[in-house]
Amino acid sequence: MTDHTSRLPGFAQASREERIGILAERLGGNAEALQLFDNLGPIEGGLVDRLIENAIGVMPVPLGLATNMIVDGEEMLVPMATEESSVIAAVCNSAKRCRDTGGFFTSYSGSLTIAQVQLCGLSDPRNARAQILGRTDEIRALCDEVDPQLTSLGGGLREVDVRLVEARSGTMVIVHLVVDTLDAMGANAVNSMAERVAPVLAGWTGARPLLRILSNLADRRLTRARAVWPADQIGGPEVVEAMLLGAEFAEADPYRATTHNKGIMNGISAVVLATGNDTRAIESGAHAYAAHGGQYGPLTHWEKTAEGDLAGTIELPLSLGIVGGATRVHPVAQLSLKILGADSAEKLARITAAVGLAQNFGALRALATDGIQKGHMALHAQNVAIAAGAEGDEIEAVAAGLRAHSRVTEAEARKLLDDLRKD
Ligand SMILES: CC(C)(COP(=O)([O-])OP(=O)([O-])OC[C@H]1O[C@@H](n2cnc3c(N)ncnc32)[C@H](O)[C@@H]1OP(=O)([O-])[O-])[C@@H](O)C(=O)NCCC(=O)NCCSC(=O)C[C@@](C)(O)CC(=O)[O-]
Ligand SMILES: NC(=O)C1=CN([C@@H]2O[C@H](COP(=O)(O)OP(=O)(O)OC[C@H]3O[C@@H](n4cnc5c(N)ncnc54)[C@H](OP(=O)(O)O)[C@@H]3O)[C@@H](O)[C@H]2O)C=CC1
Description:
Bound molecules: 3-hydroxy-3-methylglutaryl-coenzyme A, NADPH dihydro-nicotinamide-adenine-dinucleotide phosphate
Radius of gyration: 25 Å
Oligomer: single chain
Shape: globular
Strand content: 15-25%
C-alpha cells in the first residue's frame, strides 16, 4: 500500500465496483478478499452510497435483543447493535432482577436543542447582549421562516440566551438559540437557523459572526431513569453494600468514573446505533455532562432504600430522533424503532436511559461480586477461540476449555486448539 499515492481524483464519482477495483489493484490484485463487500445486506440498492461518501462496503455489527425490560410500565424488547460480548446479557440480567419492583421509571425534560452563534470583535459585549435579548421576537420570526414544517408541527424557537464567554482574544458574545426540534435530533434544523440569524445579529451589533452550529452539550434535553433492585434479587445486603462502595469509588475518582460511564455507554450507544442515531453526538454530550460540575463524575447514582434495597438513577442528555439523519433511511433503524414501539423521540430517549441504568447495574454487580472476567470472558471465549484459528466445531470445544481453565487468552486458546488437532 505504501508505494501508492492516496490522491485519487474522481474516486468519489466512481462506482462502488470501480472503487473496489482500485483497492484490489493496491492489494496486489487480491480481489478475493474484497468479496467480503459483495453483500451489503439490508442496505443494498445504492443506499450505502447515499448514506456516506467513497463507500466500498459495509462493516456489519451484530444486532441483538435485550429481554426482560419494563419501561414506564410497558414490557419491551430492546434492539441493541454492538460488537462486544456480554453487553446484551448484562441488560437482560439486570432488567430481570428489577421486574418485581416494576422495572424502570423515566422522565424527560423536552426536546430542546441548542444552536450557538459566535460573535467576535465587540468592544461593548454587554450592550450587544442587551440588544439581542431585546429583539427575541424578530429572531423567532427568522427561525420560523427557516423551518416552517417544524413550526407547523408545534416546534421552533423557544428561547434566546446570550452568554459572554471569556476567551484568550477577549470577550466573545455567544448566542444560544434554544429550539424545540420535537422528534428530530435537530442538528440540520438548528444549524440552518443559526446560519440565517448570524448575519442579522452581526448587523444589529457590529460584531464579526463566526461559528454557527448546534451544541452537543444537550443539557436542555435531559432524560432520567430510576429503578429499585430488591436486595434478595441481587445476592443480599452484602452485595448491596459492595455495589454502593463501588459506585462511591466512581463519584470520588475520575479514573474509575470514566470506566463506569464507558459501561453505561455500552448500552446507550448500542441502542443509539441500532436506531440509526448519531453515536458521536450522544457520547460527546454524555461525557461533557459527566464533567459539568467541574470534575468528571458518574452518570448514575446509587443509594440504599429504607427497606435495604438498591436504588439507581441515571440522568444524561439524549439528543435522539425518530426522524432525520439515518433514522428514516436505514431499514434496520426503521425496524429497530418498530420493535421498540418508539413513536416519538421522547419514548426512544426514555428507553435508552433505562438501558444505560440497567447496563451500569450489571457491570457494578459483576465487579462487586465475582469480578467482570467470569461473566464477560465466559461469553467472550468463543471470540478468543476464533481469533486463535478455531473453526466449526472446534470453536465451542476450545471455548469450553478456556472457560474450564478460567484463562481466556489467545495463547491458551492456541494451545487447546493444537491439542485438539493432535487428537
Ligand atoms: C454475564 C452475566 C449476565 C451473567 O450473569 P449471571 O447472573 O451468571 O446469569 P444467569 O446465568 O444466572 O442468568 C440470569 C439472567 O441473565 C441473563 N443472561 C445470562 N446469560 C445470558 C446470555 N448469554 N445471553 C442473554 N442473556 C443472558 C438472562 O436474562 C438470564 O435469565 P433467563 O432469561 O435465562 O431466565 C453477568 O455476569 C453480567 O451482567 N456481567 C457484566 C457484563 C458486562 O458488564 N459486560 C460489559 C463488558 S465489560 C465493560 O466493557 C464495562 C465495564 C465492566 O468495564 C464497566 C465498569 O467497569 O463499570
Ligand atoms: N454536531 C452534530 O451533532 C451534528 C450532527 N449532524 C447530523 O444531523 C443529523 C440529524 O439532523 P436533524 O436535523 O435531526 O435531521 P433532518 O434535518 O434530516 O430532519 C429534521 C427535519 O425533519 C422534519 N420533521 C418531520 N417530522 C418531524 C417531527 N415530528 N419532529 C421534528 N422534525 C420533523 C423537520 O422539518 P423539514 O421537513 O422542514 O426538514 C425537521 O427540520 C444526524 O445525521 C447528525 O449526525 C449534522 C451536523 C452537526
